[in-house]
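A protein record in our archive is deliberately plain, so that people and models can read it alike. The record that follows is passed on verbatim for readers who wish to inspect the format.
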Amino acid sequence: MTTTLPSTWAVHHDQFWLRGVQPAGPVEFKEELGTWNVYGHAEAHQALSDPATFSSDTKRLVPAASEKDLAEFTEGNLLQMDPPFHNKMRKLVSRAFTPKVVADLEPRIEQITRELLDAAAGRDRLELVEDLAYPLPVIVIAELLGVPASDRELFRDWVEQLFSSSDQISLGERTEEQEKLFQEQLRITRNFTDYLGGHADERRKHPREDLLTKLVEAEVDGERLNRAEIVNFANVLLIAGHITTTMLLGNTVLCLDAFPEWAGRARADRALVPPVIEESLRFLSPFSAVARVTTTEVELGGTTIPADQMLLLWVAAANRDARQFPDPGVFDPTRAENPHLAFGRGVHFCIGAPLARLEGRVALNVLLDRYPSLRTIPGEPPTFQPNPNMTGVKVLPLQA
């Protein structure tokens, strides 16, 4: 049994799994890009669980990037670190995302959700991303970090520019156009780092009770973090801390629209809301791919991959692997098992996953309480993120 996506969903052409197509094999080499694509669930799980063989330090294979640029934008970046330093850095913020700390945020998340929907009240339509799915997680993570939530339009502009490319990564010689795009992305990233650097400098003079102050005051092996480490660490938290939830919430509402029987069931039985969110994470995984580099020759999915090779682990495709998920194209929140990889696995498992799940659950429950019916508008289909490494609605107009 296979569910066909609505024809109005203009998903990226490279995301073939969303059209019910299974890959030819779990691992393939993309010669024109110089990268290995990993599509299988078992194979992606293996790579994510073995940081010694599949390193997150991908910057050494990125062509034509100066050491200065790499240091400026990667020092302190949790996503590109390997153990043991990764583990030490992660511990710095792990206390900000403990189950108790996250659970204690629930009243504030509900308050923000209600305030945002109050602002949209009285209209016969809701643009879910603009009105709720974007501002909610930005306000939450900004308050945790200690930066003004009122600057969220700045963050949005920078993130949209950063992920605006519709091309896949290439390890070959860059064309003039690709080099121009690369430099533009460095410029945009510098906007984030300059902004957060200014706030970090202010915290050194005037500490507060916020996560940015904790980073400024933190020590690893007896040494304080340098400015680049603080800024890049905070940058990952700010970007990943909101964009995942934005896509999670938008995708979940879109799934309930596409499969209205589940909207009715979740509305009647709120115990179904968490499994609905988990199935939407599998069905439309927000971050479609993560990159790794082999440190040695290794066999993966029956294929031998040499050392120093770039892998793209397509977790979104792995979450549609028929070997792991029976009827992978069917949206079924009552699956007996749902070991999706939307939040990763291993040492890099998303540190903000509990917060993203809580924000999604609270927001979805408030939406179900407030709106008897939320449906997409005929003639106004959702707009998806253009980047092939992401699967998420960018614009989602709804009849309220």
Remarks:
- The first strand starts at residue 27 and ends at 30.
- Residues 76 and 229 are 4 Å apart (CA to CA).
- The chain has a mean pLDDT of 90.
